[in-house]
Amino acid sequence: MIFDNEDNSILDYAFSKKEVFLLAKFLRTKQEELPEGLELFCKTLEDSVYNCLSLEEVKKFYS
Question: What is d(CA 32, CA 54) in angstroms, rounded to the nearest whole number?
């Protein structure tokens, strides 16, 4: 059962740089299918990519 107002984290995981990049790219290709509630997770992944790459590298990464 999923509780919308539950504040406790149930997952504590450190993503590797490769995992962040792969997830960000995957979620970008599936953004139309993104379930409600994952927007912040998706934005956090993209922000991580943007913080690691130049603007040109980001454009190349997502193309």
Answer: 26
Residues 61, 25 contacting (CB under 8 angstroms): yes
Q: In 3D, which of 41, 42, 61 has the Cα closest to residue 53?
A: 61
Secondary structure (H, E, C), 19-50: HHHHHHHHHHHCHHHCCCCCHHHHHHHHHHHH
pTM across the whole model? 0.72
Q: Which helix (H) or strand (E) holds 51?
A: helix 39-52
* 28 vs 62: CA distance, rounded Å: 8
**Residues 41-55: tens digit of each pLDDT:** 999 999 998 898 898
Buried b (16+ CB within 10 A) or exposed e, 32-59: eeeeeeeeeebeebbebbeeeeeeeeee
